[in-house]
Amino acid sequence: MTATSDREQMAYVSAQAADARVKVELDTGDMTLNIGPQHPATHGTLRIACQLDGEQVVVAEPIMGYMHRGYEKLCEVRTYPQCTTLINRIDWLGSFANEVPFILAAERLMEIEAPPRAQWIRTILFELSRIANLALFLGDMGVQIGALTPVFFAFRDRERVLNQIEEVTGGRFHPNFDRIGGLKDDIPKGWIEETRSVMVKMRTFCDEMEDLLVGNEIFQARCRGVGVIPPEVALGYGLSGANLRASGVDWDLRRDANPGLAWDQVDWRVWTHPDGDSFARYWVRLQETREATHIVDQLLDGIPSGPIMAKVPRIIKVPAGEAYISTENPLGEMGYYIVSKGDLGPFRVKIRTPSFNNISIVPWVMKGVYVPDVITILGSLYFILGDIDR
Amino acid sequence: MTTLLALPYWQETGIKLGLALAVIPTTSLILVYLFLFKMMAFMQSRLGPNDTGPYGTLQLIAEAIKFLQKEDIHPEQADRRVFRMAPVVVLASTFLLYVVLPAGPDAVVQNLDTGVFYAMAVSSLSVLGILMAGWASANKYALLGGLRAAGQLIAYELPLILAVMGVVIQAETLNLQGIVEAQATGEIFGFGAIGNPFILTQFIAFLIFMIAAQAELTQTPFDMPVAETELVGGFHIEYTGFRFLLFFMAEFGTAFAFAALASVMFLGGWWIPGFDVDDNILNVLGPGVMLAKILLVAFFIFWVRFTYPRLREDQLQKFAWKVLIPLSLANIVLTGIFKVVF
């Protein structure tokens, strides 16, 4: 604290008194604005209770739970193979990526290792669902800020990726394809070439987004310096994924804690951005989408031959024990803590979803911003409602 | 000046009034179909409406019928009388704009000597309606939208008027017909075959006019009053059915009117090179020429709308007061100097 002169002290006190008088006389009270539960910017049913002073946010509090489906509890009354059906529906835009950590955790408990071919195809599908997920974000961010066109491009090009996923798994959105000990099926004939051409198209899509949004002055004016999250705050709130990397923290579970998938077999890099604002979050995701297409390209080149399934008993009983596996999902760190008592199903499953933690920073980051920035920040934090309320 | 048809005053007035009443639904239909449906779909690699009628041309009729069927809902807390009046006020300002828009030497409802002044004055009436809608809806989103609209439209009225001043100084008249004549009889360095469309000399004013019109029409870089993703429609959030249709028609009717103003003041209006300014045939050909020019201008308005993201309210105000207004003042000074020198 610096010492202030008496005169400054007086000026401060009288200014405060004048403000108070205006408040009493004019009753310039705050206005409560509920953004959500039904609001296009919340991608579902998140509610943000904002106290507004004019258009400035005084307090913003996210209220979640409107879509709570009790998946952790439901998992307890299901067998392990049945659980993946539920888990698909947590982050519904990158479904396959949800299955992987759960299956890996179960595999660790059973001390089974999937054959290398299965691991590679898993990684490819994982990255494909990352591309499908992030592509939608790249377009949707434009819509949040008012540009109508990018989101249609995103839907158009995401469809190509979904088609590739569908061709292997049979499901566009909810593949339910990962099995303990491997995968349900092998990839179909000709799929590798098709996927390669889709990856080229996705890179073109990334270039389009770069032209339409990243290079756009209005987009930059709306995003740069909005919702700045310093690295220590980001770590403190448990942010993960691109939100954390956009704050300059070089942290990626694919590289740092690879649970056995094929990421260490290919050459790729982790993108970070020092700024920590909404623009950085967009930029990092754009680069990650591009990087993911390169990862897929490299993986397609070197899929090893061999079986797709390890030797697994017909009736899966997981021995007693506990395991936690987390992977770097499109939205951030997604982990499953499985407690088994040796039954057909898990005794307890704790799901650590990235969006839940990512959204917890909202009260901190939204203090004093304007209403349009609330939408920008929400858009750039990129949550999926099923991922918040599972 | 001879007229094509010699009619008694009341018949002429009746025809003009009927045309003016028919013209707003038609024009907004043209704009919505051509640009909002088809061009937007093309830009976003979609098909757009294609089932209703040939190439989906009747889609808007279907939409209008749908709107007419809907229930007219008032929010419980709404100030009913104001709530009902607001869309009418907005649409009235659009109607009044059409009164002075010329489409030929005689094809104009009322040839006012102060046409430019009148057009600018009535176009700002719509702010009143929007503010009424925002306030009377008893909805916080609508209130925010209404206040944003008020702040924005007032800020952009100034550059709009100041940009037009350049044209007025060059044409030496406030009469829109006079401005067309001045462009038709003008010369560029002694070359008068295509007249002198003011876009050539007043390009700064044209740019400012288009930007300010974009804001006045609440089209995308400046569409904070409606802002679908944050205010979910802003001032018209509580309107349903026919009242919403009125807002909708007013929006596109005004877009058409502003495109018409721009083509009259900057692109030479209804005049065709090679004809006399008061040639009777221009009463027939003029509307076609005007329509072509209007669609060209409207194309740019909607092109920007579909391409750009939205600015923030404070950025918009900064842009208006710190960039557009000084620029338009400089344009007036420059125009004045050139007027004296040449």
How do the helices and strands line up, and which of them pair or pack?
The complex is a heterodimer of chains A (390) and B (342).
Chain A: H1 6-26, E1 31-35, E2 47-53, E3 56-63, H2 71-76, H3 80-87, H4 95-110, H5 116-145, H6 149-169, E4 178-179, E5 182-183, H7 191-214, H8 217-223, H9 231-236, H10 242-245, H11 253-256, H12 278-301, E6 321-329, E7 332-340, E8 348-352, H13 354-359, H14 362-365, H15 371-381, H16 385-388
Antiparallel strand pairs in A: 1-2, 2-3, 4-5, 6-7, 7-8
Helix pairs in contact in A: 4-5, 5-6, 5-7, 5-12, 5-15, 6-7, 7-12, 12-15
Chain B: H1 9-43, H2 59-69, H3 80-98, H4 115-123, H5 125-136, H6 140-171, H7 176-185, H8 198-201, H9 203-216, H10 241-265, H11 282-307, H12 313-341
Keywords:
heterodimer; A: 390 residues; alpha+beta; Cytochrome-c3 Hydrogenase, chain B; three-stranded antiparallel β-sheet; 50% helix; B: 342 residues; mainly alpha; 66% helix; globular
Number of domains of chain A: 1
| Shape assignment of chain A | globular
Gyration radius of chain A, rounded: 23 Å
Taking Cα atoms only, what radius of gyration of chain B do you get, to the nearest Å?
Answer: 20 Å
**Number of H/I helices of chain B:** 12
Output the structural class of chain B: mainly alpha
Distance between the termini of chain A: 46 Å
CATH architecture of chain A: Orthogonal Bundle
Note the main sheet of chain A.
3 strands, antiparallel
**Total DSSP E strands of chain A:** 8
How would you spell out the order of helices and strands of chain B?
HHHHHHHHHHHH
Low-confidence stretches of chain A: none
Global geometry of chain B: globular
Assembly category: heterodimer
Count of spatially separate domains of chain B: 1
The interface involving the most residues is between: A-B, 30 and 28 residues
Largest sheet of chain B: none
Helix content of chain A: 40-55%
Q: What portion of residues of chain B belong to β-strands?
A: under 5%
Q: How far do the termini of chain B sit from each other?
A: 31 Å
